[in-house]
Amino acid sequence: MGEVILQMIDIDKRFPGVHALNKVSFDVKRGEVHALMGENGAGKSTLMKVLTGIYTKDSGSIVFEGKEVEFHGAREAQDAGVVIVHQELNMVGHLTVAQNIFIGREFKKGIRIDDKKMNEEAAKLFEKLNINIDPTATMSDLTVGKQQMCEIAKAISHDAKVIIFDEPTAALTESEIEDLFKIIRDLRKQQMAIVYISHRMDEIKVITDRVTVMRDGCYVGTLVTEESTKDDIINMMVGRIIYEEPKTKSRVPDDAPVVLRVDHLNAGRMVQDVSFELRKGEILGFSGLMGAGRTETARAIFGADPKESGEIFVNGKKTVINSPEDAVKAGIGYLSEDRKRFGIVVQKTIAENTTMADLGNYMKGIFIDKKKEKKVAKEFVDSLSTKTPSVDQLVVNLSGGNQQKVVIAKWLCKNCDILIFDEPTRGIDVGAKNEIYKLMNKLAAEGKSIIMISSEMTEILRMSDRIVVMCEGKKTGELRIEDTTQEKIMNLATRDIN
Amino acid sequence: MDLIKKIKENPIIKKLGFNRIVLACVLVLMYLILSLMVDNFAGMPRIMSALNYVYFLGFLSLGVTFVIATGGIDFSIGPVMFCCALVSGYSLTSLGVPMLPSLILSLIVGLLFGMMNGYLVAYWKVPPFIVSMASMNIAKGVASVFTKTQSVSWPQAAKGGWFRSLVKVGKFPVGIIVFLVVAAICSIILNHTKAGRYILSLGSNREAVRLSGVDTKKWEMLAYAICGVLVGIAAIYFVGAYTTVQPGYGDQYNNEAIAGCVMGGTSMAGGLASIGGTVIGVFIIALLQEGILALGFTKDYQLIITGLIVIVAVYADVMARRRKN
Amino acid sequence: MGNRKIPAKLLKQEVIVFIVVIALLGFFCVASPDFRKYTTILTIMDYSYYIVLMAIGVSFPLITGGVDLSIGTGLVCYSLAGGYLIVHKGWPTGAAMVVSLLFGIIIGLINGILIGVMGLPPFLATLCTCMITRGLGSICSNNFGISWPTTGQPGSWFRSIFKLTIGDTKIPLGFVWVLLLAILMHFVLNHTKIGRYTIAIGSNKEAAILSGINVKFYHIMAYVISGFFAALASIAYSAVFATVLPGTGAGFELEAIGGAIIGGVSATGGAGSIIGTLIGVFVICLLKTGLPFIGLQANWQQIVTGVVLIGSVMVDIIKKRKESRK
Fold first, then answer.
1. Which of A329, A344, A368 sits opposite B197 (nearest CB)?
2. Nearest CA among C203, C195, C202 for reference residue C221
3. Which of C114, C138, C307 sits opposite B300 (nearest CB)?
4. Alpha helix segments (H runs only) across B95-154
5. Number of domains making up chain C
6. Beta-carbon pairs below 8 A across chains A and B
7. How remote is the C-alpha of B81 from its chain's centroid?
8. How far apart are CA B104 and CA B229, in angstroms?
9. How close does chain A come to C75, measured CA to CA in Å?
10. In C7-30, which positions are buried (b, 16+ CB within 10 angstroms) versus exposed (e)?
């Protein structure tokens, strides 16, 4: 390992309502693989986005190669030698590998692009990195793993000095991960500085030199990988004092009937043989890190996405669900995590959104009974304390929290007994959050059954009677609230094949 | 700018719609200017001529409003209208089909085309512009083949052409009544029925509606089917006013119908539609066409001007949406 | 050598379409003895020039994921404009041709700016310019049909570019030029920045922007190319047909766009080859000229073309669905 090549000092960044980065410091040395870890929302991506200029920091400084710098965009950072390899690859599927690597700076012979030279240069590049890819292959024909290697090769060809990998192995097979590690080791030997963002404990142990942990926008600490254990790291990731009372005891009697049973659900890579039960009056928390497959599982259950196999039993009866229509008829409601796109109908009013799932019951002959619609909507606005001057307001004009209440009202209006909340309080301020928690508890007390997908540890601990933990498409564990700790959850949520 | 804001907040203005009021003013203004520039513009013959244009174009615009409300497009409406008129007209004049069934046939042909378009867009996810292109030409071809490439002239009132009284009785423009009534029905459908609710909602957030348990494909196809029926009605009014139709034509009305619709405040992105605005928009286009002819210009200038109007209207819509984001 | 290796998927499509062409040829030859004459080939050639040229040009907007609906009425407009200068203002044919080409480039530029800079939906922007050129064309010619100089008149040399008469035989020379242009544009698409970035825009516009490409410029270029080729097509059209009538042209774009899509250009952008477009257009031309020989009026061709277009898009969609399931 060489000297420090990049230093981020006291970086601070606020967004409306959230202190995303709280005087975070981070540095990386030449010839080092430095892991950056933390839960969802800890600030890892935000920090990297500040580094590459996608976000502007509020205060703090960045020192690169001894000089203070400020990048104003990914391109500028790339030109200077700081490159991110994203999770979503930015490749042009219809062009070849070599064409993608040199896009924007093609070799030319007069007016003609010299593809021959590009192929040769690409081949040379691959040889240097010990990658086995045909430069003339079409990008969209390659596996995700190979595409990612192309992205790496592209970064190197830009004379990268610092490469940031954002969850690089999420979509790779075992052998592809081996290949990736070989490349990373080679790069390390060549004095490249590498930042490795990942939640996979086993990989951290194998490939990294140091580990920096962030939590809730703050820098927690840096450990030397060799000298630390998985528990050390997990403690740093979750070691927060929880000010709100976590639930200490499940309110659901042990003999409560099972309202939903999911058996061996399979839907692609993100949902692998998932089975669980939901009991009446229960709030079942679904915990896990991003990419764990919780949303995909919910959508598969709800019929929003096709599934390969698996059976669903509602109140003991086998139920065929192939579309959201089927699910709604079976009494299941789903609140999508992307509220603005998939939750509300932007051009419609509160009243109109409220009856969207149950319009059949608001008809007077062939006409919509708007009076009844408004009356019912008003009732929900009152009972949910939705802040709005009237039910004729366009939903898009409400705040996030109030929009969420309208979506909840929609499912309550349909009288769904099973509700799946996907990140119910994302982007909502603290006051509204508490109201939604109160509401969820009330619903559960009234006998409704809730699945709550959440990436917020405090929320999971506060609301759940039981917790299902998922990691990379598989259910890794189930915990009762009585014997749950943050550490236990995080253990199950992070991949560790050792 | 604050004054405009204040005006917009006024409850009466809100109910009638700020945009629609502006459009109505534009209409009145146009009328006044043209009356000044052209002798006898306010005279009956000109008004009747303009109204003839309003009828068929109005039904076309109403139809395409439903399609645009879903976020799609249908520019086969002109040729399909001609196909309806030709097929039913040929049945009437050469195949001995009586008047009433012929009129109904016109609606059926329109409906079939609408259903075909809707099926391809909603269930197969074929890009609407391709469906329109193909449908447009299939309509022209079908019309040609059916009438053996001959033009068709619908009968005059005296010779059994009682359908003309749908257009006017003596000097009384019955057509206006029918048009406004149908427009009112369309408005009721869009704003007070399940179909309208779902059509507008899926144009705004299709996935959100689907996730609410609604079969969005069915309702999307319905929008195109409704458009088809209205095109069939437009055909009747076209021949009611202009008597003769020839296969191979009809394209120019596509743009004008879309212009009337977009000018009236219907957004190309879907989810937002105004029947009232469409109605006023149609009047403006009809007045424009009449005015241009009255000023001595040819129809071609109207094509150009309409093209420019649509560009401006859609650009305004694009900018408005950008600002919202 | 670089991109000579055409993606396997595309190759399959081109081969399929080629087989379709052969099959159609065979069918018509068997079904109608009149079809097998030399004059038939001439007719097919004549009809093909302007459509092929339009199709080559419109492939570029299609590959960016857009479309150019103004090429049909544009063709008529550019021809009327040039012809007007010859017939009514006594211009030499060559100069009139240049004006036609410039006109096409200008309309293409307008389309490009409306779509690439102002952000209007492609079908709508080009639908408007379609109407506008239709009006302009009629105004240029005062609503009369215009004939470019016919054989025997001064200035008719341009007709022999497309059909050379040596003694008694007529040689479809135009085929050579069109083929050369096709080869040229194939080169542009696969080996120059213009083509490369056109594909990038259609395949992943975000990635193209992030790579520092001046996306707006190349987006506009795609439509300029389309306009230019529509103008070239207008010259071919004027050379082959005696008179150009205002108000026509609507429907030409279906043949060109349909041919391109049948030949493998993706309706959603990113993929396409000029060779495929060429073959696809030939399917259309064969149907157009062949159907009358088996007793179906020319108007059936419109129906058939529409159905074939929808059919090939549906096949494309089914293929995509199968792939995403893997």
1. A368
2. C195
3. C138
4. 99-124, 128-146
5. 1
6. 75
7. 10
8. 10
9. 29
10. bebbeebbebbbebbeebeeebee
Crossing angle for the helix pair A430-445 and A400-413, to the nearest 10 degrees = 20
Number of alpha helices (DSSP H) and beta strands (DSSP E) in chain A: 16, 24
pLDDT tens figures, C68-111: 999 999 999 999 999 999 888 888 888 999 999 999 999 999 99
Angstroms from C95 CA to nearest CA on chain B: 26
Distance between CA atoms of residues C264 and C6, nearest Å: 12
In this prediction, residue B13 has a pLDDT band, given cuts at 50, 70 and 90, of: low
On whether the A4-238 domain is CATH 3.40.630.30, my answer is no
* pTM exceeds 0.80: yes
> Domain A258-493 falls in which CATH fold?
Rossmann fold (3.40.50)
Q: Is pLDDT larger for residue A268 or for residue A40?
A: A268
- A210-215 and A33-37 beta bridge pairing: parallel
Residue C320 lies in a domain: no
Name the pLDDT band for B111 (thresholds 50, 70, 90). Answer: very high
> Subunits touching C (CB < 8 Å, at least 3 pairs)?
A, B
Contact yes or no for A461/A480 (Cβ under 8 A):
no
Instruction: Name the stretches of chain C with pLDDT < 70.
Output: 1-11, 324-326
Dihedrals phi, psi of C135, to nearest 5 degrees: -65, -45
| CA atoms of A14 and A35, how far apart (whole Å) | 24
Residue-wise pLDDT for B72-98, tens only, equals 999 999 999 999 999 999 998 888 888
At residue B117, the pLDDT reads 97
Domain encompassing residue C229: 2-315
Q: Do C1 and A116 touch (CB under 8 A)?
A: yes
pLDDT for res A250: 84
Predicted confidence (pLDDT) at residue A242 exceeds the cutoff of 80 = no
Strands A309-314 and A317-319, bridge-based pairing: antiparallel
C295 domain-assigned: yes
* pLDDT level of residue A483 (50, 70, 90 thresholds): confident
Long-range interactions of A5-8: CB distance < 8 A, separation 24+: A5/A29, A5/A30, A5/A64, A5/A65, A5/A161, A5/A162, A5/A193, A6/A51, A6/A62, A6/A63, A6/A64, A6/A65, A6/A82, A6/A162, A6/A193, A7/A62, A7/A63, A7/A64, A8/A47, A8/A50, A8/A51, A8/A60, A8/A61, A8/A62
Q: Who among B192, B204, B210 is closest to A348 (CB)?
A: B204
Query: What's the number of CA atoms in the CB half-sphere (13 Å) around residue B3?
Result: 0
Alpha helices in A18-114 (DSSP H): 44-51, 74-80, 97-101
pLDDT tier at B16, thresholds 50, 70, 90: low
Q: Does C210 touch chain A (CB under 8 A)?
A: yes
Question: Which 8-state DSSP code applies to residue B197?
Answer: H
What CATH number should be reported for the domain holding residue C110? 1.10.3470
Residue C1, pLDDT score: 36
A106 and chain C: CB distance < 8 Å anywhere? Answer: yes
Domain definitions of chain B by residue range:
44-252
Six-digit token string for A245: 């009372």
Nearest CA-CA distance, residue B311 and chain C, Å: 7
Q: For residue A450, which of A478, A481, A413, A411 has the smallest C-alpha distance? A: A411
Nearest to A87 by CA among A155, A152, A168: A168
Number of H helices, E strands in chain B: 14, 2
How far apart (Å, rounded) are the C-alpha atoms in residues A60 and A43? 15
**In angstroms, rounded to a whole number, what is the distance separating the alpha carbons of residues A182 and A131?**
9
Q: How many CB atoms lie within 10 A of CB A447?
A: 11
Query: Is the CB of C127 less than 8 angstroms away from the CB of B301?
Result: no
